[in-house]
């Protein structure tokens, strides 16, 4: 596994563990979700991963595929979200990370989230 993949995987692990302390962000890191800026610095992203209610509903990530193309790490995975031990929805996430190979820290994240084809948010 390359350093870039390890850094991206650290972020994905933090989505599930709700502990962003160890994620390797550049100080000026940004995150965009569906084109909307949702993270404004490495410190902000770490805090959001650890305490943000938008991440607390994440229960599981699976079917992960990742590739590296230069400084870009592309990931695709499924994410289960829920509350009180119950899964409420499964979504497909395509998330791209700008992680330079020379200094593997996250500079930018672009996420696109959608329901899997043929899925209904509450279907089991």
TrEMBL record:
Top-rank taxon: Bacteria
Domain DUF8021: start-end pairs: 6-111
Protein name: DUF8021 domain-containing protein
Organism: Skermania pinensis
């Amino acid at each position: 596994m390359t350093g870039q993949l390890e850094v991206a995987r650290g972020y994905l692990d933090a989505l599930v563990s709700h502990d962003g302390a160890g994620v390797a962000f550049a100080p000026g890191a940004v995150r965009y979700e569906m084109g909307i800026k949702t993270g404004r610095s490495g410190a902000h992203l770490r805090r959001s991963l650890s305490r943000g209610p938008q991440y607390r509903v994440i229960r599981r990530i699976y079917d992960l595929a990742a590739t590296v193309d230069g400084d870009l790490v592309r990931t695709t995975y499924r994410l289960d979200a829920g509350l009180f031990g119950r899964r409420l929805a499964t979504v497909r996430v395509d998330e791209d990370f700008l992680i330079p190979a020379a200094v593997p820290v996250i500079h930018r994240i672009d996420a696109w989230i959608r329901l899997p084809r043929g899925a209904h948010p509450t279907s089991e």
